[in-house]
Structure to design on (1086 residues):
């Protein structure tokens, strides 16, 4: 049956780089993306106006050039530039044949691994971790670029593998490919960015047709770290008890109270796997936010108040009291959904959730439309990246998961993540425009 | 499409993608349910918490009530606007050097220290640095004139309690200080930093003078410390916090100022009385005078004057500049007891002043009659014990009128034994001694009129026999010695009884309180005799003249009784001349007096601590007081009363 029967087949442009493909992109996905970007910028304006390097309220008689430079120096302006760069990059990705990109998968993978190693060696230290790489005037976060790189790498690997995926050893090899960058990212330490790699491999293996029981085996293996973490939480609590008892002894008696307990971070654990005390603090705080409301639990409690006080209709645009009076920190980055929920209420929050869900469902639909395995894998992997970030971020914001640094696609401020997000969008669309191509 | 694609598509791809889609939908559904729980089910609670988070309530302090003298022309205590000069570093950014230099030139602050303070506050650029507290009018004008060169410099106005008459009547006005932490738990309506009255009318009329604080509710940034500014009247406003973030005023409730009050005090007379006491002569010592003078309106109990020397200036407790003077006042070591008002917070043996009450009691109880006489040989014996009369050669046969006029001790020894201690105690109480007078001032002391029960109680160290009341002690008590001690206010109340027809008055200082006077409880006959004796004590035309002759004023019907109260046994200074006796061993000089035929009739007490003799130490002061009152003060009182009656 000639492909000419399909009217759209005439529109296929098969060259490696052909901008005419842009005309045939997925307009549903494009519209959803545009809406989310607009929501993100509006929300970011509300989160930052009036603050340091936030936009002032527009008063109509500012000099054009001056206001332009103010704009470009503001949070919103910089985020808009991030989006612009991301969109241009995405359009480029749409125009390039995704199969060419998949064939470059191993190259991307090794390149980003090299960057991660550089970060560990020379990276800029900020916010309790060594995550940034200064390139000229831009600070890059290679751990972000690991996500699309891993998608292309696995797509390359799994599409080559074909049905052999049903063998356990090739299944395990895919996991090993993921674990190596995970470890590199985790030791930065950026636990959340490392965790974000895990759903990619799971979803892609699942799509590629791995056996259910292989997942079961991996699940059991995955229980091991959970057990290790639980063990450490318990021993950390014991350590805190020891510390209290020691301090009490010091206060109560003048006699030598015995040696000070070994600091928790200096203790060794089986298999050498160990969480830092600040990470264990977070876990404990999540389990019981009232534990220390002045400090660690403060954020969790204030976040609930912020989200809850939005009620059904919200407090109105730029009217959030919790966020604008700085009771809740980081509301322009990881916790921006709380601002949305406060100012736009349940209605606004559910609307954005609906947009995100529509986006994800459209993404899986594109994966299903593709006539060729590597395209399906690329689309599914990219959907996995975005889904994981979006759903986990919102689950954190509504208090269902412990607070970790997990940005929300389209809404959170952040250059590298913005570009990652749009690279994923571009990859899905690239698959869409060439969905009827065969090998 | 189907055939070609299935060849390369993953096996069961659509099913697997459906699983993934299902997962997405499920997670989103969970999130929506959670959002609904937080925002709709619990939304109201969280909205309340969000409000509680940002809203803070601040007190707008009320103005304390103003205290006037007898009319509005005399202001005793008021509030002055004290201006504190402040500086906000952010607002003079870039001009710090110039501003500090200007301030050094204008009001002499240390520019280097100010610079250092600005540096310290770098992190909170909108916090206010206090340059100088309570600047003077001149300094304020100088700063005001240069304000164009002083960006970020402004004044905060706060009410400062001001006692306009200084130490005159200072103890009566009392003082203020900040409320203590444990008091806060007991006293609702007070906040930390509030001031509370500690003595005098500031304390007894605290609730009336305090007024009611207003409130100001403001919306704050997290951890924001609002920076208060004030207008010229001291009304606070808040616009910025210490980091320059906006503070929004949400609600304001104005304070209600404390009520003003009028006192019965005549401040001219008060000043005169204090001056008299301070300058009172005490031969052979450089000690400044100590003592108390009480002048009551005998009909009503109005306190016209209640002087106590030495006193203090209450301004030292509220004025930041004078804080150094507080320390010596508040220590117990203050030998001169400047914090205690000698007219009602200290008690002294009354000596012969007590005889007025004894005479009334004797006549009323029928122990003596007008013409009953006792023979005074100059001494009095019970068994082998001997009591002397102050006049060694004796008074001869003497009746009640002369006994009062010449203060014969032996007459009253006999009268006392006739009456017995219980009836002395009873009449002491009736006429105001040994119990509270009920004056509307804090920490009044009861005084002591001893009786057997009192002796039992206060001498637990003695054996049962020695604890029993002895007849000799009744003898001692009869002339106001032997453990008997009263306050000058109490003897004034006693005098008021004698003058106003035998009625007990409750002394008061708050004009609005009004008089509280009992029914007469002393017969006219008794009063006539006692008044005759006391008049004879003062008048000069009889010979020999009475002990109170130094208080005589031509043309006035003055009653008086001297008192010379021993502090130690007379043997200690037997044979010494007056000026040789050590100051603290000297007798107290008393004079109680009353003026019957003038309007208003007054009862007064002059108590001159260690003043040696009632007749020479205290009586002349009484004369000056009476003279001053009826020539200077009384006519004015009439004018004021008339003016107030006008429509």
């Amino acid at each position: 049956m000639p492909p000419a029967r399909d009217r759209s087949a005439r529109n296929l442009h098969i060259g490696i780089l052909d901008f005419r493909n842009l005309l045939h992109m997925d307009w549903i996905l494009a519209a959803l993306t545009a809406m989310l970007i607009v929501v993100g910028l509006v929300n970011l304006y509300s989160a930052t106006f009036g603050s340091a390097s936030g936009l002032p309220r527009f008063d109509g008689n500012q000099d054009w050039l001056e206001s332009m430079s103010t704009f470009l120096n503001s949070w919103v302006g910089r985020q808009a530039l991030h989006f612009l760069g991301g969109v241009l990059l995405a359009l480029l990705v749409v125009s390039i044949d995704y199969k060419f990109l998949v064939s470059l998968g191993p190259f991307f993978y090794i390149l980003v691994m090299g960057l991660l190693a550089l970060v560990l060696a020379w990276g800029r230290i900020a916010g309790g971790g060594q995550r940034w790489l200064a390139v000229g005037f831009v600070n890059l976060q290679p751990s972000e670029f690991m996500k699309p790189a891993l998608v292309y790498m696995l797509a390359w690997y799994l599409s080559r593998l074909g049905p052999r995926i049903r063998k356990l050893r090739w299944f395990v090899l895919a996991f090993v490919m993921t674990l190596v960058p995970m470890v590199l990212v985790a030791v930065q330490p950026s636990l959340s960015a490392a965790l974000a790699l895990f759903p990619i491999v799971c979803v892609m293996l699942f799509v590629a047709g791995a056996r259910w029981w292989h997942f079961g085996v991996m699940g059991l293996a995955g229980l091991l770290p959970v057990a290790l973490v639980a063990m450490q939480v318990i021993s950390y609590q014991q350590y805190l008890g020891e510390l209290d008892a020691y301090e009490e002894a010091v206060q109560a008696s003048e006699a030598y109270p015995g040696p000070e307990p070994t600091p928790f971070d200096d203790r060794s654990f089986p298999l050498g796997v160990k969480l830092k005390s600040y990470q264990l603090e977070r876990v404990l705080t999540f389990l019981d936010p009232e534990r220390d409301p002045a400090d660690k639990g403060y954020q969790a409690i204030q976040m609930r108040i912020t989200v809850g006080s939005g009620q059904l209709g919200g407090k109105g645009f730029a009217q959030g009291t919790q966020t604008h009076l700085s009771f809740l920190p980081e509301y322009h980055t990881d916790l921006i959904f709380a601002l949305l929920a406060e100012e736009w209420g349940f209605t606004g929050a559910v609307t954005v959730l609906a947009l995100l869900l529509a986006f994800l469902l459209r993404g899986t639909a594109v994966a299903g439309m593709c006539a060729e395995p590597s395209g399906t894998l690329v689309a599914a992997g990219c959907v996995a990246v975005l889904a994981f970030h979006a759903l986990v971020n919102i689950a954190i914001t509504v208090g269902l998961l412990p607070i970790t640094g997990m940005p929300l696609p389209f809404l959170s401020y952040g250059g590298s993540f913005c570009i990652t997000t749009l690279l994923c969008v571009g990859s899905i669309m690239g698959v869409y425009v060439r969905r009827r191509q065969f090998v | 499409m189907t055939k070609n694609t299935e060849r390369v598509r993953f096996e069961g791809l659509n099913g697997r993608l459906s699983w993934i889609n299902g997962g997405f939908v499920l997670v989103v559904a969970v999130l929506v349910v959670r959002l609904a729980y937080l925002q709709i089910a619990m939304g109201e609670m969280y909205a309340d918490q969000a409000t509680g988070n940002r809203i803070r309530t601040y007190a707008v302090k009320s103005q304390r009530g103003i205290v006037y003298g007898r009319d509005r022309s005399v202001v005793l205590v008021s509030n002055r606007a004290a201006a504190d000069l402040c500086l906000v570093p952010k607002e003079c950014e870039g001009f710090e050097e110039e501003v500090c230099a200007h301030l050094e030139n204008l009001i002499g602050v240390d520019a280097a220290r100010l610079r250092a303070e600005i540096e310290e506050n770098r992190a909170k650029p909108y916090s206010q640095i206090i340059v100088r507290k309570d600047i003077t009018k001149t300094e304020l004008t100088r700063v005001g004139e240069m304000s164009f060169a002083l960006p970020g410099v402004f004044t905060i106005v706060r009410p400062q309690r001001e006692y306009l008459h200084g130490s005159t009547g200072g103890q009566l006005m009392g003082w203020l200080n900040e409320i203590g932490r444990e008091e806060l738990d007991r006293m609702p309506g007070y906040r930390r930093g509030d001031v509370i009255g500690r003595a005098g009318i500031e304390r007894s009329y605290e609730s009336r003078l305090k007024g009611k604080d207003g409130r100001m509710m403001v919306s704050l940034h997290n951890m924001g410390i609002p920076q208060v500014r004030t207008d010229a009247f001291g009304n606070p406003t808040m616009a910025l916090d210490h980091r320059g973030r906006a503070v929004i005023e949400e609600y304001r409730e104005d304070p209600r100022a404390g009520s003003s009050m009028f006192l019965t005090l005549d401040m001219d007379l008060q000043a005169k009385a204090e001056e008299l006491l301070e300058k009172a002569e005490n031969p052979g010592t450089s000690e400044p005078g100590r003592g108390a003078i009480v002048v009551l309106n005998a009909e009503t109990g109005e306190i016209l004057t209640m002087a106590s020397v030495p006193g203090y200036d209450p301004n030292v407790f509220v004025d930041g500049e004078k804080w150094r003077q507080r320390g010596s006042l508040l220590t117990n070591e203050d030998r001169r007891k400047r914090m205690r008002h000698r007219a009602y917070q200290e008690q002294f043996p009354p000596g012969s002043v007590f005889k007025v009450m004894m005479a009334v009691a004797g006549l009323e109880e029928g122990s003596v009659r007008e013409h009953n006489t006792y023979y005074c040989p100059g001494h009095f014996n019970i068994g082998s014990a001997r009591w002397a009369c102050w006049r060694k050669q004796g008074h001869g046969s003497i009746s009640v009128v002369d006994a009062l006029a010449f203060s014969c001790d032996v007459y009253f020894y006999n009268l006392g034994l006739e009456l017995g201690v219980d009836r002395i105690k009873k009449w002491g109480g009736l006429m105001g001694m040994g119990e509270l007078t009920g004056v509307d001032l804090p920490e009044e002391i009861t005084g002591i009129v001893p009786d057997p029960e009192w002796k039992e109680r206060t001498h637990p160290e003695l054996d049962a026999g020695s604890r029993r009341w002895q007849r000799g002690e009744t003898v001692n008590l009869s002339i106001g010695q032997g453990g008997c001690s009263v306050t000058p206010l109490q003897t004034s109340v006693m005098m008021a009884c004698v003058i106003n027809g035998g009625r007990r008055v409750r002394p008061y200082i708050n004009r609005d309180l009004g008089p509280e006077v009992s029914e007469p409880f002393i017969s006219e006959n008794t009063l006539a005799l006692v008044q005759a004796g006391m008049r004879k004590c003062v008048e000069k035309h009889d010979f020999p003249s009475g002990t109170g002759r130094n208080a005589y004023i031509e043309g006035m019907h003055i009653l008086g009784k001297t008192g010379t109260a021993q502090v130690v046994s007379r043997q200690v200074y037997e044979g010494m001349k007056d000026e040789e006796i050590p100051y603290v061993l000297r007798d107290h000089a008393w004079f109680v007096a009353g003026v019957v035929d003038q309007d208003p009739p007054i009862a007064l007490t002059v108590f001159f601590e260690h003043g040696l003799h009632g007749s020479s130490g205290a009586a002349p002061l009484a004369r000056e007081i009476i003279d001053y009152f009826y020539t200077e003060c009384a006519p004015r009182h009439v004018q004021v009363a008339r003016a107030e009656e006008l429509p």
About this structure: Residues 1-7 of chain A have pLDDT under 50 and may be disordered. Chain A has 16 helices and three strands.
